[in-house]
Write a sequence for this structure.
């Protein structure tokens, strides 16, 4: 294991640079912090290129993780160097650089009738992470992001999902490709809109379904005019919920119906 003591070490600067989406795309890698998140990525088949270890911060789970990663792929870093590289506190003394996985519709392997979560122009990484966590809890077969330039591996999204976003394929694609896939698989598209006439629990979500959520700022685009629109009952001043909460409500209604 190679030692890194200075926060100005080139390897530490590379880690800091990977906070930027552009740099992650350029190198085709991303950073995962924390033993739990790294373990979940490894379990999902992601490859660890490098593990950075601050031995004084290691938890029991981190110690177990370090033992399983080849020493040739590890760097031992000082407290100061680790503090510069880490985005968040409480990451168990371990940071991993992992290879990005480019998923396609061919990676969807439904365990029954397909259930997809579809996100159009979602702005905030924290909302994406929270939705991925709920999708994992429900057992969604894939998350489709309708923005080919979407930043799927933002560190804040990974943190908000507690690593759950690794449990299903993440497919960044175009509207045309998505609609073609749904047509070929006979998947019903159900989109959430506060202007819908039908409540979410009135829709039939037992069959092959793609649940669509739009931007909090702009809502759904005009691409969903022929889709089935649903809304969540609102009995107060607000006309809508946070997108991650709304998504969880609708996904769990699908799970209820399928149960």
């Amino acid at each position: 294991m190679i030692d890194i003591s200075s926060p100005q070490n080139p390897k530490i600067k590379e880690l800091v640079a990977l906070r930027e989406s552009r740099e992650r795309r350029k190198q085709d890698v991303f950073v995962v912090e924390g033993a739990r998140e790294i373990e979940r990525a490894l379990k999902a088949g992601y490859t660890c290129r490098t593990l950075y270890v601050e031995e004084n911060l290691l938890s029991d789970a981190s110690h177990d993780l370090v033992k399983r990663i080849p020493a040739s792929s590890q760097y031992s870093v000082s407290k100061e160097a680790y503090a510069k590289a880490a985005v968040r506190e409480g990451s168990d003394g371990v940071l991993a650089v992992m290879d990005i996985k480019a998923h396609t519709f061919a990676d969807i392997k439904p365990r029954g009738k397909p259930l997809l979560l579809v996100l159009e122009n979602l702005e905030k990484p924290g909302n994406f992470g929270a939705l991925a966590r709920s999708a994992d809890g429900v057992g969604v077969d894939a998350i489709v992001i309708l923005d080919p330039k979407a930043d799927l591996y933002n560190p804040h999204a990974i943190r908000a999902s507690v690593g759950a976003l690794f449990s299903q394929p993440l497919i960044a694609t175009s509207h045309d490709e998505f609609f073609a896939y749904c047509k070929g698989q006979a998947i019903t598209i159900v989109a959430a809109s506060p202007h819908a006439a039908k409540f979410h629990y009135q829709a039939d979500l037992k069959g092959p379904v793609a649940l669509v959520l739009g931007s909090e700022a702009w809502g759904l685009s005009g691409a969903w005019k022929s889709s089935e629109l649903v809304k969540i009952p609102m009995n107060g001043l607000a006309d809508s919920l946070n997108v991650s909460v709304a998504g969880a409500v609708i996904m769990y209604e699908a799970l209820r119906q399928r149960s």
In short: The chain is about 35% helix and 20% strand. The longest strand covers residues 48-53. The mean pLDDT is 94. The CA atoms of residues 156 and 177 lie 28 Å apart.
